[in-house]
């Protein structure tokens, strides 16, 4: 249970959270909030999307674990498809990746993935991007190597303090969506993982015996009770959990066209002789107009 002052503060931060007052929210496809799920509001791990993808009729036969560490995800994928081709990718300084045996592992320079264009149907990455020095460049390369319609799934930090050489305290959902859009990728869905209070408390005080916040953390449980009391729908419940989550899981897709987004061309100032003459003429006319108006 959360302390009463924390509960009161959360209610102040989220208007309309009084018992008996439903907090309903509508979302339509293509809207700014279309990535917030409406089917359920359970706390999830990145494994949620592994299970979803690998049980689909069109499950990929090749998967890449970006930031593979000790290669533990290979067993998670093979649980569903024993003959799946698993390739681990990690930085050149990763001793864990170098210690993997019996699996395909490749090391890279943190930006340029060692795969041809349009060649990988699924990339998985669990708690890696908070450590990535140039996330925009890496997301661009993820788009490059994904097949048209290919998926990028995983989990990253939002409200998580420094840990293990993390460069960023975490991404806001809006910031992550913006980075994906800029790279030509579509953020299809985000789901709440462990809440920030449980994550920070665990890092500050250490694990609590008999308490597994990765499965169900206290603030997420409190929000579930709030939803039951107020009649809030699944969308509003997910939105509230995502506002206070320490980590979130995501599903990102490369558009079937495979084309990067059209960027607005920045107009540069020409320094040619005709251009300078036009600017000077405009300045003179502006000065004449200002004098005549006095």
**What's the total count of β strands?**
7
Strand order of the largest sheet: 3-2-1-4-5-7-6
- Low-pLDDT residue intervals, each spanning 5 or more residues: 15-25, 261-269
Biggest sheet architecture: 7 strands, mixed
Helical segment tally?
10
- Proportion in β-strands: 15-25%
Approximate helicity band:
25-40%
Question: How do the SSEs run, as a string of H and E?
Answer: HHEHEHEEHEHEHHHEH
CATH architecture: 3-Layer(aba) Sandwich
CATH topology: Rossmann fold
In the CATH hierarchy, what is the superfamily?
A: Vaccinia Virus protein VP39
Rg from alpha-carbon coordinates: 24 Å
Shape call: globular
What would CATH call the class?
Answer: Alpha Beta
Q: Can you characterise this structure?
A:
This protein has 294 residues and is an alpha/beta fold. The protein has a single domain (4-292), classed as Rossmann fold (3-Layer(aba) Sandwich). Helices cover 35% and strands 17% of the residues. It is built from 10 helices and 7 strands. The chain has helices at 4-13, 47-54, 73-78, 95-98, 135-145, 173-182, 196-205, 218-230, 234-243, 273-292, and strands spanning 62-66, 85-91, 104-108, 120-126, 146-157, 186-192, 247-253. It has a 7-stranded mixed beta sheet with strand order 3-2-1-4-5-7-6, with helices on both faces. Helix 8 packs antiparallel against helix 9.
Features:
7 strands; alpha/beta; Rossmann fold
What's this model, at a glance?
About 7% of the residues have low confidence.
